[in-house]
């Protein structure tokens, strides 16, 4: 064997060794990609029930929100009715009640004033009588 043939044989052996060393990571990378593909398929299969459940939950929430909208509309209507009733009460009975209260205040003030004058005049008469007899 000539030195060129020996060098070619060594180079061929190094090349085989390089191919073997590179083949191991490539095989492992291929297995990793296969596992990733399987995981993606399983995830895709498992998401269908998840999305179905989420869809039914959203439909249920929408139903509840429609009920809340109805309740809110009814509450708005009731508050408008209460406001109208309050205005009607104020317009119908408020004025006469204020007038009646003012009248009763005036009557009670007049009666107190008369009592006070009676008491003062009775007190003056009793003082005059005591003072005049001395």
TrEMBL record:
Sequence ranges of Basic residues compositional bias: 124-134
Keyword terms, alphabetized: Membrane, Transmembrane, Transmembrane helix
Entries under InterPro entries matching the protein: UPF0478 (IPR009293)
Pfam name, any one: DUF948
Annotated transmembrane regions: 6-27
Chain segments carrying region Disordered: 109-134
Protein name stated in the entry: Putative PurR-regulated permease PerM
């Amino acid at each position: 064997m000539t030195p060129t043939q020996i060098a070619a044989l060594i180079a061929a052996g190094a090349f085989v060794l390089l191919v073997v060393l590179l083949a191991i990571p490539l095989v492992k990378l291929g297995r990793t990609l296969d596992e990733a593909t399987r995981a993606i398929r399983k995830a895709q299969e498992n998401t269908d029930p998840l999305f179905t459940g989420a869809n039914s939950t959203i439909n249920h929430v929408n139903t509840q929100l429609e009920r809340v909208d109805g309740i809110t509309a009814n509450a708005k209507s009731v508050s408008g009715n209460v406001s109208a009733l309050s205005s009607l009460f104020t317009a119908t009975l408020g004025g006469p009640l204020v007038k009646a209260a003012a009248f009763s205040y005036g009557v009670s003030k007049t009666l107190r004033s008369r009592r006070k004058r009676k008491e003062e005049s009775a007190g003056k008469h009793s003082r005059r009588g005591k003072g005049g007899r001395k």
